[in-house]
Structures are given as C-alpha cells and as structure tokens.
Amino acid sequence: MTTIPQQRRTLTTTTGAAYSRIWGVGGYRPERVVTNEEICEHIDSSDQWIRERSGIITRRFAAADETVVDMAAAAANEALRSAGLTASQISTVIVATVTHPYQTPGAAPIVAERIGANAAVAFDISAACAGYCHGIALANDMVRGGSAEFVLVIGVEKLSDFTDKTDRGSAFIFGDGAGASIVGPADVPGIGPTVWGSDGSKWKTISQRNSWIEVRDGDIDWPAITMEGPEVFRWAVTAMAPIAQAALDQAGIKAEDLDAFIPHQANMRIIDALVKKLKLPDHVAVARDIAETGNTSAASIPLATQRMLDSGEAPHGGLALQIGFGAGLVYAAQVVVLP
Amino acid sequence: MATLTEQTILEGLAEIVNEETGLDTASVQFDKSFTDDLDIDSLSMMTIVVNAEEKFGVRIPDDEVKNLKTVRDAVSFIAGAQV
User: Fold this and answer.
1) CB contact under 8 A, A230 and B43
2) pLDDT tens digits, one per residue of A167-204
3) Are residues A26 and A171 in the same domain?
4) Whose CA is closest to A96, among A305, A338, A307, A301?
5) Per the residue annotation, which of A129, A133, A134, A267 is the catalytic one?
6) Is B29 within the bounds of a domain?
7) Once rounded to an integer, what is the mean pLDDT over residues A68-86?
8) Is the Cβ pair B46, A237 closer than 8 Å?
9) Total structural domains within chain A
10) Does the beta-carbon distance from B45 to A230 stay under 8 Å?
11) Would you list which residues of chain A are within 8 Å, Cβ to Cβ, of chain B?
12) Which of A116, A286, A325, B43 is deepest in the core (most CB within 10 A)?
C-alpha cells in the first residue's frame, strides 16, 4: 500500500466575487419577418388556428447564409455595449444552442474569436429551451467561484434549419434569433439560487427525429425537430409552475415583489397558464415576445428581456423571475435583477 | 373520497369545461364530442384533463387522453379510475 507524505503543500485555490449580477443584455433578430400565411403554404392550417394555438403572429427567419455564429456574435456585441464592457474583458463565452450544425467544434470558440474575446474559455451547452437559464446558473457560479470575472452567456438558434415545414404540429412554432447577457461581479446579490433539473423519461416528446447514425445508415429525410405538442403543454403547465415558485421561495422573494415574469417563449397559452398558476399580481409585466418572434428556444428569454427593457415594460434594476424548459426534458429557473 | 356517481362527475366536468372555454355547462352532455361538438382544441383538452385530475383525485395518462373522444368517455374513465 502506498502512503501519502505527512508534510506536503496544500492546494492553492481561487475565491470569487461575493455576488454576481447581469451587467447587460443584447439581442439579434434576423431581418426577414415570416407571417402565418407563409407558414400555411406548407401545412393545412390558418392564421387564426396558429394564433389560437400559440399566440404567434409572426416570427423571424435568418437568411440562408446567416449562421448561428453570426447571430450569436451580433447579440454578444449588443450585450457588450449594454454592459459598457469591451470584448477583452470577457473571460468566458458560453453558447447555449441546439442548432449549431457542426457536431464539433462548438460555436463558442468561434464566437469568442469573432467578437475579439481572444483566448477566452469557450464552450457550448445543450439544454435546449432551458439553455440560457442553465448558462446564467453556470456563469453565476463561475464568477462567485473565482474561475471567471465576466461571463458572456448567449442563447442562439437557427431553428428554421431544423424545422419540417410540412409538420402541422411544429412548423408554425419555431423562429430564429440570438440573445446574450454578461454576468459579472456584484456587491449585492443580483442572481438568485437556480432551481433546475430534468426528466429524461420524456425525452422523445421534443426531439430530433433520428440520430445522425440513423440518417447515415438509412433512407431517412433530414432529421428535423418534432414535438408532441399537447404532452409538452401538459408537462409545462403542471410541472413548471412549482419550479418557478421554488425559485421565488429560494430567493426569498414574493410574487408581489416582482417587476417582470420572463418565461421561455414556448407558447402564449403556456405563458398564460403559468401566470394563472403562480397567481402573479397585475402589476407584474409578463414577457409576450413570442407573438412577433415565435419560439426561439435558447434565445427566447434574453430576447424577451431586451424587448421589455427597451420598451420600458420592465424597469432597469427591477426583479424578474425567469424560467426555461424544453427538450430533455430539462428546466432551470432563477430570480434576477435586470441590468 | 367517496365514489362519485356519473351524474356528479358530469356536473363537475361541465364546470371545468366552462372555466376553460366559457361554454355553458348545460352544453356539456354525455353524447357530445369534445372536438366536433364542443370545439375544444388539444391544448384546452389537456388543461381540462389536468383540472379533472385535481378535482376528482384520479390520474389520466397522456396515452389515455386521445381515447377520450366524448364527454361520456371522460366521465366513464374518471368513474372507473376512482379508488
């Protein structure tokens, strides 16, 4: 048996900031507006049907040559301007996406290089529509743990590349876009505890149709993302309200203290159901960016946040409850102070 | 919970349907189809199912929901699922 010497140096480790906060937020919305009428060129549906089921009136689609990296970099530059920081101050770039069309490498190192955050720690996370809230949780822990000073968290999707335009159950839901936040040190708490988790038993309810191996070996069409709409709806309205409430409870915040509720923009009827279940008072502004942006998965929460701040719907410095939930199934919720 | 009669379940279900859709409770009758007669879409149906589970203390699995075509189907399932 080997032994450890009695007298030996102990490890040196890092200590981080006492607290963290979101310093700035930015968004990028592709130019092309896609109406429900255009969606209905490929599915047997109508503008009215889509509005009633989802609350979506229009969504944006990126140009054919516009990539996840392009959109992420545009949103990142907006977030830097909003935070009053330069790219050289960013020590970590986290990209949350499920539509970067390379198995490897991830998008984050390319985004870091593109914006000038050279040599930053850079990696992607796959947590679908909950990706942004996962990123905020990681960034908060990194800043407070001392492994980063300023973390750029980007949620970005080009879902139009992974949508089956003829699938009546999902073609009208998805849109493209990017949203970004910068998390950095703070003297007072700016990000509450994250309540997060998963339920892998329901992984097939939102999924790429086939694995890449099945596509390679079989006579299979492009493996678009499909969704069991009613089952996902049921999970979202029953399981996510207690998660959102737990995020409030763990932060020591009551619903009446909130200025804004910014859930993942999955479907207007899920948003309405969550507002009802959480018994949010009327003065709490509710993000409804989905009407004009569609469901942009990881990008939806920062895009909705940016819209609410720019329009004055939510105040700078206000308290917001945000919750992401989606494919996995995975979820994450936290209370944040808006930048 | 004491076992409820089918008539009591129908009345409770009608209240749930009314709350979700605004339909008159009197229009929720045994022979009505949720989609064809009551014009209830798949998401409203899920909300009704979730609220019925809570009200009647039963579990209605996802796979079962698609079999609940008529009000009678739902009332019979809830009656049978009571313990």
Assistant:
1) yes
2) 988 899 999 999 999 999 999 999 999 999 999 999 99
3) yes
4) A301
5) A129
6) yes
7) 98
8) yes
9) 2
10) yes
11) 52-53, 229-231, 233-234, 237-238, 267, 269, 273
12) A325
The structure tokens listed for A1 are 């048996």
A140, B14, B18 from B25: Cα distances, Å? 51, 5, 6
User: B12-34, pLDDT tens digit by residue?
Assistant: 999 999 989 899 999 999 999 99
A210 and A331 housed in the same domain: yes
* B1 found inside a domain: no
Domain of residue B21, CATH code: 1.10.1200.10
| Assigned domain for A40 exists | yes
Containing structural domain, residue A216: 195-337
Does the annotation mark A264 as catalytic? yes
C-alpha dihedral sign at B38, B42, B44, B48: positive
A252 CB-contact burial (10 Å; exposed 0-12 / middle 13-18 / buried 19+): exposed
Nearest residue on chain B to A228, alpha-carbon basis: B62
The CATH number linked to A77 is 3.40.47.10
Please pick, among A36, A140, A264, A267, the residue that the annotation labels catalytic: A264
User: Residue A273: which of B47, B49, B62 has the nearest Cβ?
Assistant: B47
pLDDT of residue A106 exceeding 80:
yes
Does residue A100 carry a catalytic annotation? Answer: no
Domain identity same for A182 and A100: yes
Cα separation, B81 vs A128, in Å, equals 36
User: Which residue segment(s) compose the domain that B58 sits in?
Assistant: 6-81
Measured CA to CA, the distance from residue A261 to residue A15 in angstroms comes to 32
Q: CB–CB of A273 and B46 under 8 A?
A: no
CA closest to A49 among chain B residues = B41
First to last CA, chain B: 8
Query: Where among A136, A156, A186 does a domain terminate?
Result: A186
Q: Is residue A217's pLDDT more than 80?
A: yes
Structural domain count of chain B: 1
Same domain, A157 and A277: no
What tens-digit pLDDT sequence spans chain B (83 residues)? 567 888 999 999 999 999 898 999 999 999 999 999 999 988 899 999 999 998 999 999 988 998 999 999 999 999 888 86
- Which stretch of DSSP H or E encloses residue B10? helix B6-21
